[in-house]
Amino acid sequence: MSLDEIKAGVLKMAQPADQALADNLKSHVSYIEQVSDYIIFSGGKRLRPVLFLLAAHAAGGNSPEPTLASIFEFLHAATLLHDDVVDEAGLRRGRPAARTKYGNDAVILVGDFLFSKSYSLAADTGIPSFVKALTDCTTYMAEGQVLELLHTGDLKLDMEGYLEIIRAKTAVLLAASCQMGAIYAKADQDLIQAFYNYGMELGLAFQMIDDALDYVGTEHEFGKPVGHDLAEGKITLPFIHVRDNAPKEVSQRLLELTELGKTQTEVLEEAKALVRDNGGVDITYQKATEHAIKAQESLQWVLASQKDNQHLALLHSLAWYVLNRRT
After folding, report:
1. E strands, 101-195, where?
2. Residue 218 Ramachandran class (φ > 0 left, ψ -120 to 50 alpha, else beta)
3. In which residue ranges of the chain is pLDDT below 70?
4. DSSP state of 168
5. What one-character DSSP code corresponds to residue 153?
6. How far is 59 from 282, CA to CA, in rounded Å?
7. In the prediction, which pLDDT does 220 show?
8. Domains and CATH numbers, the chain
9. DSSP H or E stretch at residue 236
10. Dihedral sign, CA of 30, 32, 35, 36?
11. Contact (CB, 8 A) for 179 and 196
12. Whole-angstrom Cα distance, residue 75 to residue 133?
């Protein structure tokens, strides 16, 4: 499947999800709708709702109600709202972050509304395992946010700690999107687990690409300032690789730039150059590719017996879509 075909398939699946999002944002408090609309309809690829819909179709179930796909975008939007408050972010998806427009208090409360709305939609299915999967996911996500907070500015964070954070912070929601699609389709446990494993590996690849783009992307395409992670003291794979593998004078200089009280611009530009020039970005793309391949391998045994399953084929191909994204 070509990249253009994958993008077309994603867009086709995203359209009913978009309509469902609009339909499910109703509240008698109009301000909630206003803030929710601002973050949810400011862009984004709807990857998580698409994963849910694709997984449900691929697992052989009846066409899932697009309303349920809203669960995953609502959760994603809620985490973005809360993240921007914690990070004191100025931009999100290329425009002022919601917190700068509506204030931190309103943004936190609307994030809580979106979390609650997700649980309400899940409860409407009447499927206990569906709701359980959602609660497990959100618990893990909360742990990830706390872990990231605890390690902010931790220049000694190692690869194991980094992976623990991004599994919980990002990958688990992609994993749950796929897992819950299979649960909704009443798939057997082996298939449910395979879809969960696929989503987890895909999520790791997704976050690694995000971390690489923070060093090489542009603000226009990335939708937020590049070098944002380093400026906030968030230690990611490109930094870890150079710190641990570059010549001693390079790694020492990188640590100095992060610790010294220079202006942000000076720190970012020199540090980003050191990371790029010493293989930090290249190794991150390499590791992301390895996880994308593992994601595909999780579905290989299913594909072998269902070669005509187009939804499964698109799900399998999405790994390359994630690797080639620029936003």
Report:
1. none
2. beta
3. 217-227, 260-263, 326-327
4. I
5. T
6. 35
7. 52
8. 3-323 (1.10.600.10)
9. none
10. negative
11. yes
12. 13
Distance in angstroms (rounded) separating the CA atoms of residues 221 and 43: 12
Token digits of residue 110: 């609307």
The confidence score (pLDDT) of residue 150 equals 94
- In one-letter notation, the amino acid at residue 132 is K
State how far the Cα of 298 lies from the Cα of 284, in Å rounded to an integer: 21
Three-class SS of 54-79: HHHHHCCCCCCCHHHHHHHHHHHHHH
Residues 6+ apart with CB under 8 A from 47: 10, 174, 206, 322
Tens of pLDDT, residues 190-203: 999 999 999 999 99
| pLDDT value at residue 222 | 54
Whole-number Å distance between alpha carbons of 11 and 321: 12
* Residues with Cβ within 8 Å of residue 136, at least 6 apart in sequence: 176
pLDDT of residue 261: 52
